[in-house]
Design goal:
There is one protein chain. The protein has 665 residues and is of the alpha+beta class. It is built from 23 helices and 24 strands. Helix 18 links the parallel strand 20 and strand 21. The protein is elongated and about 115 Å long.
């Protein structure tokens, strides 16, 4: 066995470096203990009389007790008595009276549960590494009249001008001083479409008060620039930018102690010393009364066997393993017992919008021609002009518009080719089609154009779509207004049914958290049937909302992006969408929907609720057996009956837990 180095982390949790086997060392040791124990038991049951069974039981002691002994010694050195310690004393007592197989099974079962819980402890640390990898390590800084120079981001100072080239990561928080572009802010804000950026009107004023710069000029470290080059003025140092705060929020949230862990610590703080004191009292009473030492020691060991936490130790792990195995077969990854138990008690669930409740990409949802007969011309004109743009909204018009034209059996005339596309950042585009100017853009852009104004009926419809949360595009060809297009990030087809099913399972409150505009978020929330909708949120705002919700009830956070990681880590349980989820979200989350299917949420909710009931049943049963057996053995009940009841309760606990494997989807 390779010696491991003990490391104490910020939450007071002890982890280990286990040599060449890494985090699997404890699990491998537990499996070896199980293998040699079962081999020894088989030999004994078949009547083999040689020394091999005894040697195998001793080997099970070594493999099963190695890590448990080290944990117990560390706890004792820290002034704490845990179940690990009592487990070892009980196993030693069983060996002392010749019951090696009894001590071996205690250590084997306990080490298996302990190893499986500790196997994923390193996942939280890797989430921090994934967060840090989002931002560039270097930046191009323009200082003086010379060419930009590349420097580490740690050397950036407030007021430096950074050149952000097209399709590269933004290295720092700041505002745009020159250039126009669209920036993908989804890693930070979760917005479903890139945000158009333009320079601030007054650079000196923005530098003096960065908060005064409008959202159309602010950019964040870790976001991705689009097709235009930007000059960015740094407003925050590398250790203070938005991405760094996201990292810090994740770290702070992951260091909190779970309710289950706090309960276990409180329980073992009294349970283990109490049993040891009782054993010492029994030994002392026997000595004072003149009882033969062999009889006194036998009674004391019977109490230790009765009080050994075999059923108690396996009660939760058996239920957790069964539920986790069933969840895995259903396409859900659950990272341990704590999130499984907590998820079974939830009454409030908060959802991210983009990529979680919605598909994460805009769709053309409304085509509103000014003249009913002009639908085909509206689509053909918009598709031809937007085909020249790489903006996600333009690509949605081309993709969905071409599909509508094909589905409507449009005329077979060859589509016209547009040219001379020019973007009006933040408002729209202008192109040339068959010698005519084509303008596509917002209502604000349409009102700036010379020529005939937007017809009242078309204006009213456009404003109605905007109030319903659509992104609108008015289309004009030459001097003729053709109509308006409405786009939105459409809800997932299964979202509304999943939310309704959750209510049927006892979830009392559903809340949607989004970085999108409040009107857009409201439209999606209404379509899905959410109880509450919060829009325009940055990562720290989502954390604040989750904290607010947790004050009144246990709360889960369902998300998929980097911006969701702090909120997921701060929730009672964090759930990541699998296929669409970022690496950070998956590492930070306690539960992952591997099939990226919201219909898995009702499944895991029902399974977790059933598992919570089974865990409570097992705990009450195991504690009840101990409560009966300890005084019974102290008053003279022999080891044989104590072992029979004790092991019988263990079998009942395991059988009860195995029912979870048959949980119906």
């Amino acid at each position: 066995m390779t010696e491991a180095e003990n490391v104490t982390t910020g939450g007071g949790v002890t982890t280990h470096r286990h040599g060449f086997l890494g985090e699997r060392a404890e699990l491998v040791s537990a499996l070896l203990a199980l293998t040699v124990y079962l081999t020894g038991l088989t030999l004994r049951l078949t009547g083999y009389g040689g020394p091999a069974p005894q040697a195998l039981f001793i080997a099970a002691y070594a493999f099963g007790g190695f890590f448990t002994l080290r944990e117990a010694l560390l706890a004792v050195r820290g002034g704490r008595f845990q179940v690990d310690f009592l487990m070892l004393v009980a196993a030693a007592g069983a060996a002392a009276i010749g019951r090696w197989e009894e001590g071996a099974v205690l250590l084997v079962l306990f080490s298996l549960g302990h190893a499986l819980e500790g196997y994923a402890m390193g996942r939280a640390r890797r989430s921090i590494e994934a967060l840090g990898a989002l931002a560039p390590r270097t930046a191009l800084v323009r200082r003086g009249a010379g060419a930009p120079v590349e420097v580490p981001v740690e050397e950036l100072a407030v007021g430096d001008t950074v050149v952000v080239r097209p399709h590269t990561g933004v290295p720092a928080d700041g505002f745009v001083a020159a250039g126009t572009s669209s920036v993908d802010q989804s890693p930070i804000t979760g917005e479903s479409v890139p945000a158009d950026k333009a320079p601030v009107a007054d650079r000196a004023a923005a530098l003096a008060d960065p908060g005064a710069a409008g959202p159309e000029s602010r950019v964040y470290a870790g976001t991705v620039n689009g097709s235009g080059a930007l000059d960015l003025v740094v407003t925050r140092l590398a250790g203070e930018n938005t991405l760094a705060r996201v990292v810090k929020l994740v770290q702070d949230a992951e260091e909190r102690t779970s309710p289950t862990q706090r309960f276990t610590e409180r329980f073992t703080r009294f349970f283990v010393p109490g049993v040891l004191v009782l054993v010492a009292v029994l030994l002392a009473v026997g000595a004072l009364t003149g009882e033969p030492f062999a009889d006194t020691f036998y009674r004391a060991m019977a109490v230790l066997v009765a009080a050994s936490p075999c059923a108690l130790a396996i009660a939760t792990p058996a239920a957790v393993l069964s539920a986790v195995g069933r969840a895995a077969r259903g396409g859900v990854l659950v990272k341990g017992g704590a999130p499984l138990e907590e998820f079974g008690r939830l009454r409030t669930i908060a959802f991210d919008k983009t990529g979680t409740l919605t598909e994460g990409r805009p769709r053309l949802t409304e085509v509103e021609p000014l003249d009913a007969a002009g639908r085909e011309e509206l689509l053909r004109t918009a598709v031809a002009a937007q085909r020249l743009s790489d903006h996600p909204l333009a690509q949605a018009v081309v993709r969905d518009g071409a599909g509508l034209l094909q589905g409507a059996a449009a005329s077979g005339a060859a589509p016209s080719e547009a040219g001379s596309l020019r973007a009006v950042i933040g408002r729209g585009v202008v192109a040339e089609l068959d010698g005519e100017a084509v303008h596509i853009g917002s209502l604000a852009y349409a009102d700036t154009l010379a020529g005939p104004p937007v017809p009242a009926r078309l204006r009213d419809r456009t404003e109605e779509l905007a109030r319903a949360g659509r992104t609108t595009m008015l289309v004009r060809r030459g001097d003729r207004w053709l109509g308006t297009l409405g786009l939105m990030d459409a809800p997932r087809p299964e979202a509304a049914a999943a939310v309704a099913a959750l209510r049927g399972l006892g979830v009392q409150r559903t809340v949607m958290l989004s970085g999108d505009d409040q009107r857009v978020a409201d439209a999606v929330g209404r379509a899905i049937g959410m109880d509450e909708v919060r829009g325009g949120l940055l990562p720290e705002d989502k954390v604040a909302e989750v904290t607010r919700l947790r004050r009144t009830a246990r709360t889960a956070m369902i998300g998929d992006g980097v911006n969701d990681a702090p909120a997921m880590a701060g929730a009672t349980v964090g759930v990541a969408m699998g296929a669409a989820g970022s690496a950070v979200a998956l590492e930070t989350a306690d539960i992952a929907l591997m099939s990226d299917d919201l219909r898995r949420l009702p499944f895991i909710t029902g399974l977790s609720r059933r598992a919570s009931r089974v865990i409570r049943q097992n705990l009450w049963l195991s504690l009840g057996i101990v409560a009966v057996l300890v005084p019974a053995t102290a008053l003279g009940l022999g080891i044989g009956p104590a072992v029979l009841v004790h092991e019988g309760s263990t079998l009942v606990v395991v059988a009860n837990a195995l029912r979870l494997l048959r949980y119906a989807d």
